[in-house]
């Protein structure tokens, strides 16, 4: 949900565009050979110009087929390139491709990117930036999905081709999966593949979106590795009342009761919690941030009951959301007529639950907050577990080494996402997932899911080279 790769236009048009394109000036040691930079850019353009939204206009299958054609044209055998389409959802296709390793006894590495995107309406974007047209301008690629998550889909595909054409044979298989419906929709690709084609994506662990580089004022600060994410669960808050005529008001009013219950939620802080990922995040961030915030991080790690340190960190929303479970009112409805007292008032309260925090405890706390106002609380569905992935040297070591080679002095920072990604399906199935890309974005100008989505050209190509080196390091092997 970071904003994956968008989609594919026609191969002929992509080829024509590539003929006229030359790589932007980027530090040579941090980029791939020009032909593979061109390949990644061309596929990104094609993917962006295929609408893969969860609307009647979107078609994920076309995007999966476009990436498959690129792999087959590059010489991959048909038995290693699969476009898998659910019988009940012909536009929800997924691609699974495999580069064979020399040791079938070693579990593969899975490279995951979703190729569906959130909706983008032309009237919501700048007039000269149609959302489903790939445009390069002033050092950026523009288009829906260039950041979430078609960038990584194009990179993984181009890098897999590069490895094969260079004669690289990994010790273990490398699998690329480009999937549907991460951004919502009825046919999530990862869930579908796990349920019906698990043998094609089973892996020792996976790389995914959710991490990436953070920069500010042109300076690279950290290369983040997402190793955990919060659970998603919403609750209905319901207030009921016999109602009556609005000319005879009473103090007991469903809308007032609901309002008071929501204010109680607003003023409640769930307890501070830590796990391995957030301990590393705050521990490594303390020196980077410095000052009062940095000192508060150190104090809270030493004593999670330090209320003053928690107060200081909670003033910043990004830190607050990584310290605890959070719940917030997001939707509201109530009443049935202008001249009648409301008989029903309802709100949706969305919670992002800290991993390991029992959802039943969250439900009980919300019910306790609402009870004095005669408001009932009911969960909307059941959260999908997402256990944090272990921070092993096998994975973090190469990330830290390659980060240091490409961007000396940049900190590798394990993070817990406050949102959700497809990693939760894999983690719940026993496959650890690490969100990492080496693609740096301006932390003060995040456009994923928003207006005029863009990615820096230099960042895109550096991320391509970073992921190439990382996957080779993780998979072992050599040129044969």
Features:
globular; 480 residues; 36% helix
Explain what this protein looks like in three dimensions.
Helix content is 36%, strand content 22%. With 480 residues, the chain is of the alpha/beta class. A six-stranded mixed β-sheet has the order 1-2-7-3-8-18, with helices on both faces. A four-stranded mixed β-sheet has the order 17-10-9-19. Strands 13-15-11-16 form a four-stranded antiparallel β-sheet. It starts with 10 loop residues before the first helix and ends with a strand. Mean pLDDT is 93; it is low at 3-26.
Strand order of the largest sheet: 1-2-7-3-8-18
Low-confidence stretches: 3-26
Helix content: 25-40%
Number of helices: 15
What percent strand?
15-25%
Mean pLDDT across the residues is 93
Structural category = alpha/beta
Oligomerization state = single chain
Number of strands: 21
Principal-axis shape equals globular
Rg over CA atoms, rounded to whole Å, is 24 Å
Q: What is the CA–CA distance across the termini?
A: 37 Å
Major sheet summary line: 6 strands, mixed
Question: How would you briefly describe this protein structure?
Answer:
The chain has helices spanning 11-19, 34-48, 60-73, 150-165, 189-196, 198-201, 254-266, 276-289, 291-302, 307-314, 317-323, 359-370, 393-406, 423-428, 457-475, and strands at residues 81-84, 94-99, 109-114, 135-137, 140-142, 168-169, 174-179, 205-208, 212-216, 219-229, 231-240, 244-245, 326-334, 340-341, 344-353, 375-380, 411-417, 433-435, 440-442, 454-456, 478-479.
